[in-house]
Amino acid sequence: MYLLRRLVLSLFTLWVLSMLVYGLSTLVPGDPVLRFLPENPTHGGLQQMERAEQQYRRLAASLGLDKPPFYFSIRPAAWPDTLWRIQPLTRRRALDHLTGRYGNWPLVQEWYRDLRVLERALAAMPADGRKLLLDETQRLVTSLTIADNPLIIRTTLRQLGEVVASDSTLSRTLSPLIEAAGLTFARLEDQATPARCYVPDFKWYGFDNRYQWWMGQLLSGEMGISLLDSRPVRDKLSDALVWTLMLNLLSLALVWLLGIPLGLWTGRKARHPIARAVTAALDLLYSMPSMWVAMLLLVFFTTPMFGMDWFEGIWLSDVPVHASIGERLAAMSHHMVLPVICLTYPVLAFFVRQLKQGMAHALQQEYVRAARARGLSERAIVWRHAFRNALFPLITIAGQMVPRLFAGSVIIETIFNIPGIGRLIYDSILRQDWPVAFAGVMITAVLTILGYLLTDFLYHRADPRVRF
User: Fold this and answer.
1) What number of helices (H) and strands (E) belong to the chain?
2) How many domains, the chain?
3) Which of 413, 441, 451 is nearest to 247 (CA)?
4) Pairwise CA distance, residues 325 & 238, whole Å
5) Same domain, 294 and 436
6) How many CB atoms within 10 Å of residue 215?
7) Do residues 95 and 144 share a domain?
8) Against a cut of 0.85, is the pTM above it?
9) Is 270 left (phi over 0), alpha (psi -120 to 50) or beta?
10) Do 397 and 213 contact (CB within 8 A), yes or no?
């Protein structure tokens, strides 16, 4: 029952994290669909404009952006339940801001329809040597569709009327439409109902929504497409995760191989001068930022300036994508020493200190004195009795080391140019490749929760009396 409850709690935590990550993904700037579309011409005719709109909608559907954002929404009554259908995203956001300013969605919708009629009428106009004039008119009309500031809208309408009035053919066709749009916007300002923006309203969208689509993609392993190179996010993350796991597992192995003997020995010999010196040295290492240490190691041990260029510096090896683990290890062997040191020493210092305190506390218990009175050897007392009862701090640290190592690997991978998942997330954020960044965050969260779930399992194995 204990493990079942922990498993349910872990799944609930993952669900909350997924909603948090998804919520952040909806707040990123820019329109991801436009990253896959070629640059639209300023004027290409009605048919070309319709093809561009159809292409946009197809791409939006392939990215799950043609659905409502969540199962439900609690928004003011001024907003409709169909605003999510407006494409592209820049126009939807402009209409959203206008609705929040004026609170009158029917007139906001009429304003948008007037602009659409004007846009289609302009696209149907023949060029006939007026390309520059048509391009300028198209630019002004497009700016109106994404504008949400009243001053900018009124100024753009006036400029649009002046540009169209300079050509009789354009004026005869477009001037009535511009005037109708201007009258609609004037009515919108006069008939504003901002009080509706303070009346809450519950809207149910159903199960066919973007969050459920996103979660389905995530659970099936289809995490989307990179905005930079159009590669599947799954492939980019799997390639990077191999390097990160290799780096962190080596560091974790060193922490255990060095930390357990050091922790047991310093716990037994707490007053020994050498034990005190080891503890002080580890405390000093723990206080040194890994970023600063990494830079020092790069300067002193990878350049010939100081005569100690014993290791490879920044990782530049060309390893095939489908290389085996052995080939990857061989390629990285010269580059792994310094990064592993930077990842290991702060965790090792923390690990040894906690194990030392647990061991010192266990050796002071009555059952240890009773074991000594029965004539048991010191080795048996330490390993069979004291060490077993000092396992709880050890298990706790083991669970905490997973997020610690992954958090540290972001900095270390960036400094040493290791193509791991930390470096991938960092580069994706800088280059606004949000599908990769958020999928990487979810992968890291899953690994962290699995680490804590393993800790709970080890707690129960070490002491069956542990309860939820």
Assistant:
1) 18, 2
2) 2
3) 413
4) 13
5) yes
6) 15
7) yes
8) no
9) alpha
10) no
What is the predicted pLDDT for the residue at 42?
47
Shared domain check, 380 and 286: yes
Residues 342 and 293: beta-carbon distance below 8 Å:
yes
Q: Are 34 and 87 in contact (CB under 8 A)?
A: no
Whose CA is closest to 262, among 348, 344, 341?
348
- Nearest Cα residue to 340 out of 393, 290, 403, 288: 290
Residue partners of 358: CB distance under 8 A and separation at least 6: 263, 267, 390, 391, 392, 393, 394
In a domain? residue 26 = no
What average pLDDT does range 187-208 have in this prediction?
A: 92
| CA 439 – CA 218 distance, rounded (Å) | 8
239 and 388: one domain? yes
- pLDDT of 330 reads 65
Our CA dihedral for 337, 339, 343, 346, rounded to 10 degrees, sits at 80
What are the tens digits of pLDDT across the range 379-428?
777 776 677 666 666 676 666 666 666 666 778 888 888 888 888 888 88
Tell which of 189, 219, 249 closes a domain: 219
How far is the C-alpha of 456 from the C-alpha of 452, rounded, in Å?
6
Q: Which of 164, 184, 219 is the last residue of a domain?
A: 219
Cα separation, 267 vs 294, in Å, equals 30
